[in-house]
């Protein structure tokens, strides 16, 4: 068996090389083999195979969400319309409490824009085009710091004067966004922007650049930056997509949650995986994850990792005991609290 390991060179998405690596890192599911064939592999081959399975699960396996569909439609319309507007260009806010998958959704949107641009303009990279810019802001970040990040993303070797004004920074940032034909500007952790000054900078970017701004953060419309004062002007120029828990008491929520669990169940990269165990226990998984997709994904990742970590295992079946061990560990090692017990889990038929 020949397994090509995934090699990643960059730790962050806030550089052009790092972002493009993140967007391209979609390793395929490794070839499915029997457990006896897996056991016959050499130690180094098993290690590579396990790493490939882990990479597929963490980087590639995703489930469709209503928020993803909605955001994609809104963003596509704005990217087409904004270059034809002369002011008050529209943006998008992706907002939710902590650990709801906001950044993951933004990454999917960025990948969609990048891939669409590459299909239309195959030589875009060689031509110096940068359809997506990604910045992350830290606590109490200023508009000046935000503009500096945009400039360094697009011109990493530039040296900025220490006494440069915000207006000069804005003009440089807008010019670079135009020269590199940027369509999407993602501002992650946008809740860290403090006061009215960053909001006025974002408003100016929307006025002066045709790039569509996507703000990603925690409860954005209730924070200092966008929940009051000048920030409301930015909020009113943005469509809001909020990520919420799934309520399985509704027919729609129940169908969506069961669909997510079934997708994970069908695609677990385990040897001789027998489908059904996760699907049978969708209600317990909902209780453990509190209806949050990001927590469900973490449970699935931990489940596979825990099985692969069993050096003396003789199979890779998902059992009640293995699943409960992960759920029990979840409440002991994270802030996730649930009351699921082993007796709440059922074996697959």
Q: What does this protein structure show overall?
A:
With 349 residues, the chain is α/β, with parallel strands linked by helices. The chain folds into 2 domains: 66-242, P-loop containing nucleotide triphosphate hydrolases (Rossmann fold), CATH 3.40.50; 248-344, Helicase, Ruva Protein, domain 3 (Orthogonal Bundle), CATH 1.10.8. The protein is built from 14 helices and 5 strands. A 5-stranded parallel sheet has the order 2-3-4-1-5, sandwiched between helices. Helix 8 (196-208) links the parallel strand 3 (184-188) and strand 4 (212-218). Helix 6 (143-154) packs parallel to helix 7, helix 6 (143-154) packs across helix 8 (196-208) and helix 12 packs across helix 13 (293-308). It starts with 15 loop residues before the first helix and ends in a 16-residue tail after the last helix.
Care to give the gist of this entry?
49% of the residues lie in helices and 8% in strands.
- DSSP, total strands: 5
CATH topology assignment of the largest domain = Rossmann fold
Number of domains: 2
Span between N and C termini? 33 Å
If strands are numbered along the chain, what order do they take across the biggest sheet? 2-3-4-1-5
Largest sheet: 5 strands, parallel
Name of the CATH architecture of the largest domain: 3-Layer(aba) Sandwich
Low-confidence stretches: none
What would you call the structural class?
alpha/beta
Average pLDDT, all residues = 95
CATH class of the largest domain: Alpha Beta
Strand content: 5-15%
- Gross geometry: globular
Question: Helical segment tally?
Answer: 14
> What is the H/E string?
HHHHEHEHHEHEHEHHHHH
Backbone CA Rg? 23 Å
């Amino acid at each position: 068996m020949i397994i090509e390991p995934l090699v990643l060179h960059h730790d962050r998405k806030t550089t052009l090389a790092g972002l493009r690596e993140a967007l391209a890192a979609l390793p395929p599911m490794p070839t499915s083999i029997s457990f006896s064939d897996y056991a016959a592999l050499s130690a180094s081959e098993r290690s590579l195979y396990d790493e490939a399975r882990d990479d597929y699960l963490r980087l590639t396996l995703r489930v469709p969400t209503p928020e993803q569909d909605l955001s994609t439609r809104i963003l596509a319309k704005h990217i087409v319309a904004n270059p034809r507007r002369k002011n008050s260009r529209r943006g998008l806010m992706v907002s939710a409490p902590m650990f709801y998958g906001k950044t993951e959704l933004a990454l999917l949107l960025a990948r969609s824009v990048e891939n669409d641009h590459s299909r239309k303009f195959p030589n875009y990279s060689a031509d110096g085009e940068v359809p997506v810019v990604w910045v992350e802001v830290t606590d109490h970040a200023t508009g000046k710091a935000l503009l500096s990040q945009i400039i360094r993303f697009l011109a990493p070797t530039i040296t900025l004067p220490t006494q440069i004004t915000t207006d000069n920074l804005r003009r440089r940032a807008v010019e670079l966004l135009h020269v590199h034909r940027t369509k999407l500007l993602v501002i992650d952790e946008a809740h860290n922007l403090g006061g009215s000054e960053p909001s006025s900078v974002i408003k100016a970017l929307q006025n002066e650049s045709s790039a569509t701004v996507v703000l990603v953060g925690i409860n954005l419309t209730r924070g200092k930056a966008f929940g009051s004062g000048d920030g409301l002007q930015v909020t009113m120029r943005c469509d809001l997509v909020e990520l919420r828990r799934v309520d399985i008491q509704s027919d729609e929520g129940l169908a969506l949650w069961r669909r997510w669990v079934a997708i994970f169940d069908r695609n677990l990269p385990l040897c001789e995986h027998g489908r059904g165990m996760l699907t049978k226990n969708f209600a317990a998984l909902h209780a453990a994850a509190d209806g949050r997709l990001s927590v469900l994904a973490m449970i699935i990742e931990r489940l596979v990792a825990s099985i692969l970590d069993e050096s003396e295992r003789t199979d890779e079946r998902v059992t009640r005991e293995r699943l409960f061990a992960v759920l029990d560990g979840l409440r002991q090692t994270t802030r996730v609290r649930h009351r699921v017990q082993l007796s709440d889990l059922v074996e697959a038929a």
